[in-house]
Write a structure and sequence with these properties.
The chain has 275 residues and is of the alpha/beta class. It has helices spanning 19-27, 47-53, 69-79, 98-104, 154-160, 171-179, 207-220, 225-256, and strands at residues 6-12, 34-40, 60-63, 84-89, 93-94, 112-121, 126-130, 150-152, 187-198, 260-264, 270-274. It has two domains: 6-223, Spore Coat Polysaccharide Biosynthesis Protein SpsA, Chain A (Alpha-Beta Complex), CATH 3.90.550; 228-274, no CATH class. Strands 5, 6, 7, 8 and 9 form a five-stranded mixed sheet that branches.
Length: 275
């Protein structure tokens, strides 16, 4: 059985609320050939107390100001010595035995391993699975990355480069678009739920700022003005569908007492059912 060394990077800044749960989900993994790296941005709350509590379980740790989350990612990647590298944000947590299942998928010559994610809306207490796209086109209208459930070889980072530090929201999408430009890219889709992702982090950033970064991403990765227009049109249509749904939902509730919920199946198709 293959036993690759798996590097896991946690980036954090003033993350005392969920950090301990995140760290324990890595530390308590049954798979032993792992390397744990923690990159802190100079936290001022109780984050460092939590990190020091488990310092003997951490292989590499630094706490210093950085230029944002992309910079923190890059610091961790440069410090990693594993055969494959995964990144987990401080408010998420890894599924039990996930690293063992990932290690069982390891093959020489594969550049990128992609699992799927359980998305948990802590406020609404709803959960759904999120499955990754099999390709990334320009424009990236329905890109499903599952960044937190992906494992990348150091060699692929060397070919494509690291995260762009001046990207604050779409740094992972930009990276994967660059990955998928390689015609000889070898990807393994894993039937493994790697991570539970809490909604409400950086990925829940203002839509307008994310849209602006995606426009820049399109242009910097060979897209045309037409690609930008297609992207903007897609998101305008998506917004109108959402508004129509909520208007209809309120009307049905008022007139007939019906409530509807939204869910997505494994192919990300959207359905609505009455409760």
């Amino acid at each position: 059985m293959s036993t690759p060394k798996i590097s896991i990077i946690t980036v954090c800044y003033n993350s005392s609320l969920h950090l301990e749960e995140c760290m324990l989900s890595i530390i308590n993994q049954s798979y032993e050939n792992k390397e744990y790296i923690v990159i802190d941005g100079g936290s001022k709350d109780g984050t460092l107390d939590i990190i020091n509590k488990y310092r003997d379980k951490i292989d590499y740790f630094v706490s210093e100001p950085d230029k944002g989350i992309s910079d923190a990612f890059n610091k961790g990647i440069k410090a990693a010595t594993g055969d494959i590298i995964g990144i987990i944000n401080s408010d998420d947590f890894m599924m039990p035995d996930a690293l063992q299942k990932v290690a069982e998928q390891y093959e020489e010559g594969v550049d990128l391993y992609r699992g799927y994610t359980l998305v948990w809306n802590e406020v609404r207490n709803t959960k759904k699975y999120m499955y990754p796209n099999h390709h990334f086109a320009i424009p990236p209208c329905r890109a499903m990355i599952c960044h937190e459930s992906s494992f990348i070889t150091p060699g692929l980072y060397q070919r494509a480069g690291l995260y762009k530090v001046d990207f604050k929201y779409e740094m992972d999408l930009d990276l994967f678009v660059r990955f998928y430009k390689f015609k000889d890219l070898k990807v393994k889709m894993m039937n493994v739920c790697v991570m539970t992702f809490r909604t409400g982090g950086t990925s829940s950033a203002p839509a307008a700022k994310m849209k602006n970064e995606r426009i820049r991403l399109i242009k910097e990765n060979g897209g045309t003005n037409w690609d930008v227009l297609v992207f903007l049109g897609y998101h305008q249509a998506k917004y109108m569908v959402k508004i129509t749904y909520w208007t209809l939902s309120k009307f049905m509730k008022k007139m007939f007492g019906l409530k509807y919920y939204r869910y997505e199946n494994s192919s990300n198709a959207i359905f609505y059912k009455s409760l």
